[in-house]
Amino acid sequence: MSHVVVIEDESTVRDVLRFHLERAGLRVSAYASTQAAEEAGALAGADALVLDWMLPGESGIGFLRRLRTDNDLRRLPVLMLTARAAEAERVEGLETGADDYLTKPFSAAELVARVRALLRRAQPETPQHLGNGPLTVDLAAAEAQLAGRTLNLTRREFDLLAFLTANAGRVYSRTELLDRVWGADFLGGERTVDQHVTQLRAHLGDDPGKPSFLETVRGKGYRMRAWNADAARAEAPK
Predict the structure, then answer these.
(1) Together in a domain, 72 and 49
(2) What does the angle CA 126 – CA 193 – CA 216 come to, to the nearest 5 degrees?
């Protein structure tokens, strides 16, 4: 599920934005100022940002200028939301780094369509075959193999393995994994993730104390170890 951050100081507008974006199946974090969003660390996990131009304290356009100088966030898709309709102001917003521009008042359908378009443009095409050392994952066939041996996985085990393999090297918390793999409407707890990781380790022949694939990062979560060619030759299962 894509995560959209909204920064809008008018509470009524903020609630409307949240309602329609969540209704469209997106996960939304909404804030009244850029400071509040940064203090919450929301932008680090965002897939898109809906940003109001006129904000208390730091303006939206000022924040956007700063955002585009941040190596970690400069590619974050941004929809600028404003009551400014003059062409010169639209041009300023786009030249500052906004990916799209929506003028108030706006329709819910147009808002959702523009945010979805930003998300589509920002997401690279997912390859159908993933590889990580001796591990291969065929997304089209829903099949995983380790050194040529097919793994007998449940659907959730496969989904979790595919997600972690596609994002090898990145740490995900249990909450993030529940959201990305099981979905926001899943009612189970974080223990579900631990159980599935344990099951996957058994399938992979992974030693929890010295894992070749699924690593536990203390206090943070799990990650799929990213193999390089040398590691694959040295540690491939015999």
Answers:
(1) yes
(2) 85
